[in-house]
């Protein structure tokens, strides 16, 4: 799978010219897997296809989904791009040092996520990624065009793919949708026991997501954590049943 299978995920892109330019630059650097999350324009418009030039097939084969979790289904690794200072504990990284991580398991799906042209990714959307990159720019003008940001990252990925790889033996990380199932089960239990409340659940769960994303959980570890939650739920149910006798 490797470079050609790496997903370039655009969240709610609004400009057909940007989509076309992104398809073109993906073709330039050997990436072909484009995923559009709730696009705010017609990706098959004349403007987009003209801008794509010889990358039109990338637009025509693009997968369109409604939500970011759908775009990441089956992925094991995900990096999100952001241009703003984050209050989260996970540090911002340089594309050159962070992006090669997406190619370390070439047989496993991975994704690079880009946000909206005008406001990027929300904090909730950033929580679906395990690492975060920011492209260093001049302080005189920090804002990058979406297609330019994608081009820089595609170039760095292409350069990384050409470097000789050292073989490492490691247990594979859990697919993101499996980890997401754990998050949903954890949130349900924490609401049930009163550790979190509906009006604070999103922010508190964001902290848990950051914690576990930094750990790069393996499939067996997720199964262990879910087993603990199931045992807690069983104990709570039996305690309630005993009190009702």
Content-based structural category = alpha/beta
Name the overall outline: elongated
Compressed to H and E, one letter per element, the order equals HEHEHHEHEEHEHEHHHH
Q: Please list the strands of the largest sheet in the order they lie side by side.
A: 3-2-1-6-4-7-5
- Beta content comes to 5-15%
C-alpha-based Rg, rounded: 20 Å
Low-pLDDT windows of residues: none
Total beta strand runs: 7
Calculate the terminal CA-CA distance, rounded to whole Å. 58 Å
What is the helix tally?
11
The biggest beta sheet reads: 7 strands, parallel
Task: Give a short summary of the structure.
Helix content is 47%, strand content 11%. The chain is of the alpha/beta class.
Q: Explain this structure to me?
A:
The protein is α/β, with parallel strands linked by helices and 245 residues long. 47% of the residues lie in helices and 11% in strands. The chain contains 11 helices and 7 strands. The chain has helices at residues 2-5, 16-28, 46-52, 56-60, 68-71, 95-98, 123-126, 146-161, 176-192, 201-215, 219-243; strands at residues 7-11, 33-37, 63-65, 77-81, 92-93, 110-114, 131-133. A 7-stranded parallel beta sheet has the order 3-2-1-6-4-7-5. α2 (16-28) links the parallel β1 (7-11) and β2. α2 packs parallel to α3, α2 (16-28) runs parallel beside α8 (146-161) and α9 (176-192) runs parallel beside α11. The radius of gyration is 20 Å and the shape is elongated. The termini are far apart. The mean pLDDT is 89.
């Amino acid at each position: 799978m490797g470079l050609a299978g790496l997903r370039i995920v655009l969240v709610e892109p609004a400009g057909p010219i940007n989509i076309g330019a992104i398809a073109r630059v993906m073709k330039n650097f050997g990436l072909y897997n484009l995923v559009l999350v709730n696009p705010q324009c017609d990706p098959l418009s004349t403007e987009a296809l003209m801008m794509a030039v010889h990358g039109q097939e990338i637009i025509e084969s693009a997968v369109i989904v409604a939500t970011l979790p759908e775009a990441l289904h089956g992925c094991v690794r995900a990096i999100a791009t952001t241009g703003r200072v984050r209050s989260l504990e996970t540090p911002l990284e340089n594309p050159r040092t962070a992006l090669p991580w997406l190619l370390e398991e070439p047989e496993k799906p991975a994704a690079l996520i880009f946000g909206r042209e005008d406001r990027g990714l929300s904090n909730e959307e950033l929580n679906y990624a395990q690492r975060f990159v920011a492209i260093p720019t001049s302080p005189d003008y920090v804002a990058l065009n979406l297609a330019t940001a994608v081009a820089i990252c595609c170039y760095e990925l292409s350069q990384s793919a050409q470097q000789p790889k050292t073989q490492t033996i490691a247990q594979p990380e859990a697919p993101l949708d499996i980890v997401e199932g754990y998050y949903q089960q954890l949130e349900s239990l924490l609401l049930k026991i009163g550790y979190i409340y509906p009006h604070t659940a999103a922010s508190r769960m964001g902290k848990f997501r950051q914690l576990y994303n930094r750990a790069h959980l393996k499939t067996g570890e997720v199964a262990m954590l879910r087993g603990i939650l199931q045992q807690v739920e069983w104990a709570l149910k039996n305690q309630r049943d005993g009190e009702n006798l």
